[in-house]
User: Fold this.
Amino acid sequence: MIKFDIITIFPEIFNSYFNESIIKRAQAKKLVKIKVHNLRDYTKDKHKSVDDSPYGGGPGMILKIEPIYKAIRSILRNPKSEIRNPKQISKSKFSKSKTKIILFSAKGKKFNQKMAKRFSKLDQLIMICGRYEGVDERVAKYIADEEVSVGDYVLTGGEIPAMIVVDAVSRFIPGVLGKHESLEEIKGSYPVYTRPEKIIINKKKRTVPAVLLSGNHKKIEEWRKKS
Assistant:
């Protein structure tokens, strides 16, 4: 089983996606475990502030390091402590061979199938979802193991990337998809058809390729490789 821990200021966003279909069944079977952590729970002021204005000026607000640091320590069950000098935070305090901490960032490494498979070998994946104008850079330097981007575009936060990573990584966990052959890299990618055999679209008859109706599995396999 792999455990996903997601740190966010919008925990409700995940409810719908993680409680449907394959991800829901994977959790029920105890193949994956997902826990969403509200970053505001790790603040100490009455307003539960998680952001502040940037040093040096500039637009927008920045997610603060203190609540993120406390959230990570809590998830990893490390002793509680105050940050006296964030520059002295060492990643070695957090690193475990089967645990990885990632921060979603537009300047991070591109997430792909190879990375998803690598993450699937872990026992625990902790994801920090950025928001606003960014995250205090010391999180990337001293806490996160990797910065990850899901594409060449900018999103309003790391919540959608977190869903993408959970989905892509979960597919590699034995039993999540039901059949090992369901993995795209195993079966390959090719055109698929189902009933009805014939249909009229824009006044033209569109049919299923005859080879798929032939029952000749060798020819079907050859067709799929060529398609």
